[in-house]
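Illustration: NAD(+) diphosphatase.
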Amino acid sequence: MSINLNAHAFAGNPIRSKTPKAHDPLSPSSAFQSLKTHLLQNPETTSLPPPPKSPLFKVLPFRKGRPLASSSITGNNDDDVPSWHLGWISLPDCKCFLGKCGVDLTEDSLVYLGSKVEDDVVYWAVDVSGESRLIPELGDKQFCFVELRTLMVATDWSDSIAMGELAIAGHARALLEWHNLSRFCGHCGEKTIPKEAGRRKQCSNESCKKRIYPRVDPVVIMLVIDRENDRALLGRQSRFVPRMWSCLAGFIEPGESLEEAVRRETYEEAGIEVGEVVYHSSQPWPELYAYLNSLEDHILILVFGYVLDIVGPSSIPCQLMVGFFAYAKSLEINVDKEELEDAQWHSREVVRKALAVAEYKKAQKTTAAKVDQMCKGVEKGRSLSADFNVESGELTPMFFPGPFAIAHHLISTWANQDVPTDGVEAGSKQPNSSISNL
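Result:
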């Protein structure tokens, strides 16, 4: 099976590729002024026309980190797979829905996401976590608040539009989480207020007025390679499901370069010394931590992404995963049990075979059907866990994070083609080409 990605999951956002200039109607400042005018208007008491050159506003509600979504099937065949879509609603409808809950929609509650010049549309996000009465209201229209991690797995990675919607949802999720975590100034403790249409915040204390911008936490993730023996080092955390292996990873420390972080983390976790470090690609990774509702959810998360903390949300709104190939100078493994449960060298042949039997596409289709049922208000009636076995029904001997994780592409690139040792060449090894023999 070939996996084609024009960009990593959560990258390639189609509405934030270029920020319009300040005087443009679609820019954050102009759109925000227009937004305030719209919100002041009451269609029942005024006949005032919208402001001149006013773009169309679409709003994406979130509840407890879950974006609003819908699902549809375009074909008429029984085997057609449903596809999910973001639940954009118009600004008047958003005001109406919240008004029925006794909530006034204000400009400070909306966060600017981006725009599409060709459609004259500006996109916003709003957190409605406190409005439980919205659920039946939106459910009647076959909308549902769905975990971002579930939408990630349900996304058809060959569909560029679907991947773009996933990137928009990830961007919005990270921004809203940052807003929830930055309600007070870290310098003086006073409340913060949104600025620039929610793209930054500022301390309300007149003697402070500290500017606060969205936080991004860089993480190095590396496939360590034993060049002489044609092997790769893979690790296991104690929270991994059985038989799952992945790349080593760790946060960058202050005053540290990316290459230094790769070498330090590899030595700390596995006792392996690293020499040459070659860049592969990077991936924005919005905060996907969530409560696990069942064993099926546990399996779903761990197979297709990084391990999530089972005790709930973290305080990291958005990570930037920076991927590398790292070439080992020493081969004896000395595992730090506080960091890893185990680490082992695996041959290219073994890794390639494990990639070949993993049924990523089957699980994607199953999860898409699950989202479709959720949006239609139907309880799922089948187990998902069987979809992670090989076709014979036997358990696969080992597997790796799925195609939405950068770890998957580091591992599969090495397993299926020669990895360059030249930084320039490696930098061009983006996931826009087919990864074959999977």
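Reading the tokens back as a structure: Residues 290-313, 380-393, 423-438 have pLDDT under 50 and may be disordered.
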